[in-house]
From TrEMBL:
Superkingdom of this protein's organism: Bacteria
InterPro entries in alphabetical order: DHFR-like_dom_sf (IPR024072), RibDG_C (IPR002734), Riboflavin_Biosynth_HTPR (IPR050765)
Domain Bacterial bifunctional deaminase-reductase C-terminal intervals: 7-167
Designated name of the protein: Bacterial bifunctional deaminase-reductase C-terminal domain-containing protein
GO molecular function: 5-amino-6-(5-phosphoribosylamino)uracil reductase activity
Pfam families: RibD_C (PF01872)
Phylogenetic classification of the source organism: Bacteria, candidate division KSB3
GO biological process: riboflavin biosynthetic process
Source organism (scientific name): candidate division KSB3 bacterium
Length: 176
């Protein structure tokens, strides 16, 4: 299964503006790219905070051709939202989860954050690629892409302008 992390960051490396949750700081070009590219994946994985921040939009756009998995330590807390095959909640390890998704015939999975989820998938490493939208913003504070010390090596695959100011950097994650 192909597993790709997709993230937007400020020039100083933050995935959120200050203590705000979510990606409200991203440009319209990134939002359009994200909506379009997400259709190319048959599953996506993100954390509980990401789910809670974007819950209305996620629930409104559930489709049978894309399974959404929320990683949480407490899946039972979200039982009211569980819709098997559409929106599922799991406390499994990333390795277990990807094995199960492959058994369910999923072939392309987007990992959508937040920082703790990116850290889990990069530390192993389970991501094949990392796609980074670089936004022309400087925040000074916010949440970082990875939440623990690490040394993940990447190889630049491509640089594509999403707009005059916003770039999409696609990296291959180098396996140790």
């Amino acid at each position: 299964m192909e597993t790709i992390g997709i993230v937007a960051v400020s020039l100083d490396g933050f995935i959120t503006k200050h203590q705000d949750e979510g990606t409200a700081f991203t440009s319209e070009a990134d939002k359009q790219f994200f909506r379009k590219v997400l259709r190319e994946f048959d599953c996506s994985i993100f954390g509980a905070k990401t789910f809670l921040t974007s819950k209305e939009g996620i629930l409104r756009h559930l489709t049978p051709d894309q399974l959404r998995i929320v990683l949480t330590r407490s899946p039972e807390r979200y039982a009211a939202y569980q819709q098997t095959g559409l929106l599922e909640f799991s406390s499994r390890s990333p390795e277990q989860l990807l094995r199960e998704l492959a058994q369910r015939q999923k072939t392309r999975c987007a990992v959508l954050g937040g920082g703790a989820v990116y850290t889990l998938f990069l530390a192993t490493p389970l991501l094949d690629e990392l796609w980074v939208t670089l936004e022309p913003r400087l925040f000074g504070t916010g949440k970082q892409l990875i939440t623990e010390q690490g040394d993940v090596r990447l190889s630049l695959k491509s640089v594509d302008p999403l707009s005059h100011d916003t770039l999409l950097l696609k990296y291959t994650v180098l396996k140790p």
